Amino acid sequence: MLELDKRFRLEKYIETGDLYFYHEDGFDFDAIAAASWYFRAAIEGHCGAQLQLGIIYRYGAYGVSKDPIIAEFWLHNAAIQGHILANRYLSEMRTEHFDF
Questions:
Q1: Which region, left, alpha or beta, applies to residue 30 given φ > 0 means left and ψ of -120 to 50 means alpha?
Q2: CA-to-CA distance for 10 and 63, rounded, in angstroms?
Q3: pTM for this structure?
Q4: What is the CATH number of the domain that holds 34?
Q5: What is the pLDDT of residues 8-53, one digit of tens each?
Q6: Rounded distance between C-alpha atoms, residue 41 and residue 48, angstroms
């Protein structure tokens, strides 16, 4: 039962973050509010939330500062859980570091 409650809670965090990030259902766009909701799920291990945070920090925009170290941290956490898109972003970031 606890695991079901946790999954439900994490999905609600993601849904709320998406409402802010994708400007849905009358929510004003707010990347900082979205990131805070994704963070709540990410720290509990939700790989989709970890991916979203990684992307937000990779590109930095809309009031969220670009931070490749934080981006890589969250993308790595999603990737080790098998998130294919997180692996792609990590590969791109690592390639960018070595382009001279």
A1: beta
A2: 24
A3: 0.85
A4: 1.25.40.10
A5: 999 999 999 999 999 888 889 888 999 999 999 999 999 999 999 9
A6: 9
